[in-house]
Amino acid sequence: MSIDALKERLPDYAKDLRLNLSSLASDITLNEHQIAGTFIASAVASRNEEVTKAIIDEFGAKLEPAALNAAKAAAAIMGMNNIYYRFTHMMGGDYTQMPAKLRMSIIARPGVEKVDFELWSLAVSAINGCEMCVQSHEHAVRENGMSSEQVQTAVRIAATVHGIAVVLDAEPPTV
Q1: Where is the Carboxymuconolactone decarboxylase-like domain (predicted)?
Q2: Which CATH number fits the domain that encloses residue 61?
Q3: Residue 83 falls in the annotated catalytic set
Q4: Annotated catalytic, 133?
């Protein structure tokens, strides 16, 4: 499935998402590598098989195998971290001082430029709604030279991909 087939699956009430998907796929704020990884990490985080397949089919070939794995790893590790750190942030107290005791070695050695992995982690954290992680990853990418416009583009990709997943979850599958 391609991104065009995914757009065709969107009903008229989701026309805005279709248009956003088209414009973001060719956005020039991020480089091709960053766009592809952000789309893939966001699709995996969306937890919709159809969206994930279409996005990986469209953008997977634009990444080296290590980068494709890193985009998926960003979704995986943030799937864990966003839950844990959202809990500690909500609860406060002793929990914020306790070591996580969760393995997170992929963050130190993601197999791609650190700033790209941080950007993909930021997009996933936005989808998962972890304020602490969003702030941490936004700080990391800004410290590594990314602009607020680039951050915004990554979050716009995450928002659009997630919105498409929501729509397709509500629509009957095609036969």
Answers
A1: 94-170
A2: 1.20.1290.10
A3: no
A4: yes
Q: Per the residue annotation, which of 6, 14, 17, 130 is the catalytic one?
A: 130
In a domain? residue 113: yes
- Averaged pLDDT, 59-82: 97
How do residues 131-159 score in pLDDT, each as one tens digit? 999 999 999 999 999 999 999 999 999 99
* Set 67, 127, 133, 158: catalytic member: 133
Number of domains the chain is built from: 1
- Is residue 43, in this structure, part of any structural domain at all? yes
**Ordered DSSP codes for the chain:** --HHHHHHHS-GGGHHHHHHHHHHHT-SSS-HHHHHHHHHHHHHHHT-HHHHHHHHHHHGGGS-HHHHHHHHHHHHHHHHHHHHHHHHHHH-GGGGTS------HHHH--SS-HHHHHHHHHHHHHHHT-HHHHHHHHHHHHHTT--HHHHHHHHHHHHHHHHHHHHHHHSPPP-
Domain around 71 = 3-170
